[in-house]
Every structure is written in structure tokens, then in C-alpha cells.
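Re: [ENG-882] Designed sequences occasionally contain unexpected residues at chain ends

Forwarding the minimal case from QA. C-alpha cells:
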């Protein structure tokens, strides 16, 4: 646990490589959600994972929202705590939004930035999707919320080839602290990086699944157009939750960009 700003933040460090790789979680993820990715990355990197406020084992301060800027500053405090001056940062979905704010607020701390399945801004469609999840949680609990979220998270191919994973994913979804997620969602609604993407000067790579319905390709194209020198890769046939659906391809993209 890291004691920071009167709160406890949970983190993990693993791996055998010298290069620090900071991984930022998606919305309902925790450090445990990188289980399929970690063995693919640990031989090369020193992995640093943390639960943002509102996630996993980190303390949940009661407040109206968890701003993206606060989450970014918490991560910078963790790097200070670990004595890491500079790292490679990969952010997935919500973690990609936090990563954008981290890159703006703490540019000297980054050597490379990888943005995966994320948003340049929270558009009207994203707001309505979040509202539908909240309504499902209220009407039918985590089971209905999980069912409502499925087509947003995975590709058609995943439902055919990996349906056996769904019961376990449903069980995991039921453990999520929804009041914490609501505060995270409130922070997301304020997200709009379009006007300051040109301030991000760190080498940046963007990836998105061709079947990502939650953070669609046009959002990644906005990021690509706004961040000078950035590169963009579309993963064929992949949906949104690439850490579950396409962990090998995701890890390969991270490793390749480390060598670029």
C-alpha cells in the first residue's frame, strides 16, 4: 500500500526486466485483471500496476467524482515512492484517458506512451452507454449490468470462440464496487483532450480493435491526428477488452513499440 494524500493506494511490482512499464487499468479492472498479460510482459519489463481510487484494493474516498487528473497525480506519486524517474506507460480504456492526463501533467516521467482502446473525449454516445450500465445495475444488479455490457466489450468472434470464459467473467463483475465506479464515471464525463493533444510530445502508439464498439476507431483517429508523430494500429477482429480477448496481440504491440 502507498499512503498518499490521506489515502491508501494498492499497487504491485513484478517482472524481471529493467525497463519500468506502468499499466493503467480500465474502468472496472483491478491489478488482477492483467493476469493473462503479466506472464507475457514480465520476462522483459518491470511491471508496475496500481488500483486507481475507486478500484480493487485502493481506498475509496467518498466524493462526487474521481477526477482523471487526480488519478494521474496518484500514479506520479507512486513512481516517486518507487524511485522511478521515467517509465513506459500503457493505458487501457479508462486507463488510456488517465494516461493522456498523466502525459500532459508529468511529461518528464514518460519515455513512451501506448494508448489502447480509449477515448479522446467523452462524447454523447459514451454518456448514454454509461447511463444504461447504471440503470441496469439499479434494476437488476451486477448480473443484468454484465449482460448489458457484453456487446460493448467483446467482438463477435469472442462470443463464438471463448464463450466458456463468460461465467467466470460474470463472477468477477459481481465483485466490482459500483459506487466507486459511479465516481469514476463522473470523472470520465469531464474528459475532453481534443484541445490539448498537441501538448503531448512523448513518442505515442495507439491501438484499437476493429470491432471495438465502446471506444470506436474514430476516437483513436482523433488521438492519432492530434498527437504529433503518433502511430496507429488496428487489431483485426478484436473488440474492446483486448487484455482478455487478445492478450498476446496486445503484449506484442507493447513490446514492439518498446523497440521502435
Amino acid at each position: 500500500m502507498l499512503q498518499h494524500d490521506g489515502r491508501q493506494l494498492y499497487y504491485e511490482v513484478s517482472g524481471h526486466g529493467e525497463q519500468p512499464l506502468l499499466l493503467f487499468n480500465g474502468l472496472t479492472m483491478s491489478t488482477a485483471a492483467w493476469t493473462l498479460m503479466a506472464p507475457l510482459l514480465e520476462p522483459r519489463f518491470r511491471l508496475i500496476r496500481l488500483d486507481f481510487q475507486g478500484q480493487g484494493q485502493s481506498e475509496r474516498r467518498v466524493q462526487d467524482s474521481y477526477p482523471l487528473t487526480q488519478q494521474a497525480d496518484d500514479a506520479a506519486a507512486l513512481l516517486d515512492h518507487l524511485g522511478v524517474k521515467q517509465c513506459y506507460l500503457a493505458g487501457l480504456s479508462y486507463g488510456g484517458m488517465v494516461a493522456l492526463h498523466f502525459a500532459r501533467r508529468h511529461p518528464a516521467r514518460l519515455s513512451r506512451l501506448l494508448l489502447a482502446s480509449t477515448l479522446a473525449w467523452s462524447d454523447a454516445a459514451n454518456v448514454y452507454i454509461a447511463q444504461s450500465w447504471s440503470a441496469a445495475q439499479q434494476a437488476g444488479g451486477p448480473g443484468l449490468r454484465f449482460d448489458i455490457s457484453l456487446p460493448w466489450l467483446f467482438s463477435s468472434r469472442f462470443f463464438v470462440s471463448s464463450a466458456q470464459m463468460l461465467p467466470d467473467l460474470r463472477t468477477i463483475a459481481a465483485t466490482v464496487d459500483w459506487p466507486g465506479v459511479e465516481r469514476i464515471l463522473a470523472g470520465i464525463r469531464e474528459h475532453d483532450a481534443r484541445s490539448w493533444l498537441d501538448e503531448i510530445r512523448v513518442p505515442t502508439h495507439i491501438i484499437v480493435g476493429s470491432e471495438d464498439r465502446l471506444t470506436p476507431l474514430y476516437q483513436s483517429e482523433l488521438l492519432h491526428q492530434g498527437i504529433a508523430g503518433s502511430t496507429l494500429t488496428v487489431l483485426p477482429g478484436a473488440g474492446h477488452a483486448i487484455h482478455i480477448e487478445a492478450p498476446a496481440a496486445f503484449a506484442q504491440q507493447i513490446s514492439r513499440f518498446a523497440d521502435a
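QA comment: On inspection the terminal residues look reasonable. The longest strand covers residues 110-116. Proposing we downgrade this to a documentation issue.
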